[in-house]
């Protein structure tokens, strides 16, 4: 989980920086992880960033998400069709009670629904995206 207390400043990476660094890393980048101390799906231009890196590099593009931001099937569909290669889906526990014990603002059913929707989208569009479910705790 993101250690929010370690995050001194907050903000989004800007597209101009992405455009500046992508030619510099294109020959070397093997994997680009678009996450660190925050929720990547909060970035208003995440899909554009993924598409940019997919076009300008041969790198595998990964994100890790707590599945709390996108509300609709269409948002997940647009996201997966951006070209992301691997999505780490963080679901804490096996019930709403255990989920919120580790993620106080979490919604277990929303997270599970998001994974189901991504799986359907992957199959319907024949996408090669890896959908990996991560679980920090299994308290029931």
What can you tell me about this protein's structure?
The protein is α/β, with parallel strands linked by helices. It has helices spanning 15-25, 46-56, 73-80, 96-102, 108-124, and strands spanning 31-33, 60-65, 86-90, 130-134. It has a four-stranded parallel β-sheet with strand order 1-2-3-4, with helices on one face. The chain is globular, with a radius of gyration of 16 Å. The mean pLDDT is 88.
Lay out the secondary structure.
Elements: H1 15-25, E1 31-33, H2 46-56, E2 60-65, H3 73-80, E3 86-90, H4 96-102, H5 108-124, E4 130-134
Parallel strand pairs: 1-2, 2-3, 3-4
Helix pairs in contact: 1-2, 3-5
**CA gyration radius, whole angstroms:** 16 Å
Class per helix and strand makeup: alpha/beta
Characterize the overall form.
globular
> Could you tell me the number of beta strands?
4
Distance between the termini: 19 Å
Approximate helicity band:
25-40%
What is the overall pLDDT average? 88
Which regions have little confidence, pLDDT < 50, spanning 5+ residues? none
Number of helices: 5
How are the strands of the largest sheet arranged?
Answer: 1-2-3-4
Question: How large is the share of residues in beta strands?
Answer: 5-15%
Q: Mind describing the biggest β-sheet?
A: 4 strands, parallel
Can you write the helix and strand succession as a string?
HEHEHEHHE
Descriptive labels:
140 residues, alpha/beta, four-stranded parallel sheet, 5 helices, 39% helix, globular
Concise synopsis of the structure shown:
The protein is of the alpha/beta class and 140 residues long. It has helices at residues 15-25, 46-56, 73-80, 96-102, 108-124, and strands spanning 31-33, 60-65, 86-90, 130-134.
